[in-house]
Amino acid sequence: MRLSALSRRRCCAIAASALLAALLPATAPAQPSYPTRPVKLVVPFPPGVSPDVIARLWGEQFTRLTGQPVVVENRPGASTIIGAQAVANAPADGYTLLWTVNNTFSINPYVYKKLPYKAEDFVPVTRILSVPYVLVTSVDSKYRSLQDLVREAKARPDQLSYASAGIGQGTHVALARWLNQAGLKLTHVPYKDQFVPDVIAGRIDVALDASTGAIPQVRAGKVRALGVTSAQRIPALPDVPAIAEQYPGFVGDSWHGIFAPKGTPEPVLASLLATSQQVMANPDFRAKLVEYGLTPVGDGPQAFRRFLDEDARAWEKVVRENQITAQ
C-alpha cells in the first residue's frame, strides 16, 4: 500500500509539473543584438558634399560604439529620388538605411507628379541635425548687407539673379520662400553642377548655399554672407544676421535624418535609435557639427514624424505658390 501511495503521489507531481509547463509561455530563442554585420548607409548625394561628410562622421561613431562598419553608398541624382528608391526596395532588416535631407519627403512629393517611392515606404528613425543656408554674394559685390540687396531688388524687379542647385532643390525653394515673404522678384538660374564659382565671379548676384559649403568660402574671403536662414544666428558666423531679424518668422533650413524601410523590426529600430543618440551625445561629434555651422538635433521617431508633417506642409505651400515643377 505504501509503495502504491508513493507511486500515485509521484505520478500526480509529474502530471502537475507537465500541466504547469504547458501553461507557461514558451521561451523564445534569444535574438542576436543589432548590428551583427556591416550596415549600408545610402546617401543620395555625391562624395564630399554636406550629407556625405556628416553621414561618414556619424558612421565612424556608430562603428566605434557597435564594432560594425558603416558602408556609405553614394547614390546621387534626381533630387535624392535614386537613393530613396534603392532603400525603399531594400530588405527591411536594418542593414540598409537612408541618410537624406528635406527634398526626399518635404519637397519632392509636391514638385514631381510621379515618384517611385512614398513616404509610407519608410520609417523615420531620427533627425540628426538642422542645416542653415547662407545667403552669399561675391566679395566684390556692391551688396554689403541684406538691406542693400533688398533695396536694389525692389528698384529693379527681375533684374537681379539667384542661383540654385536645380529646380525644386532646397537652395531654390528656400530662397523662393524668402522672396515671397519679402515681396521681391529675382530671376532664378538653376544649375546642374556647382553654382558657387559663378557667384564668386559675380556672374550671379546671390545664392543660398548650405552652411557646410558656404562657411569655408566666407572665411577664405571669396564670398560675403548677407544672412542665414536659421531662426537665430549660428555660432560659426556670429556676425552674420539671421534673415528672420529683418523678416520675423522666416526659417528656411534643411535637415539630415535617418530612415529605414517600412517593416524593419521594432527591436532593430530601438537599437539603432539608442546608438544614434549615443553618437549625438558625444561632445566631439556635436562640436564638429557646430563647427560646420550645423545645429545638432537628435529627435526620436515621434518628434521626427511631427516635424516631417509640419515641414512638408510649409514647403508644399511654397512649391504651389511659386508653381515649381520638375520632370
UniProtKB/TrEMBL annotation:
InterPro entries: BUG, Bug_dom1. Pfam families: TctC (PF03401). Keywords: Signal. Gene3D superfamilies: Bordetella uptake gene, domain 1 (3.40.190.150), Periplasmic binding protein-like II (3.40.190.10). Residues 1-30 form the signal peptide. SUPFAM superfamilies: Periplasmic binding protein-like II (SSF53850). PANTHER family: BLR1237 PROTEIN, TRICARBOXYLATE-BINDING PROTEIN. Belongs to the UPF0065 (bug) family. This is Tripartite-type tricarboxylate transporter receptor subunit TctC.
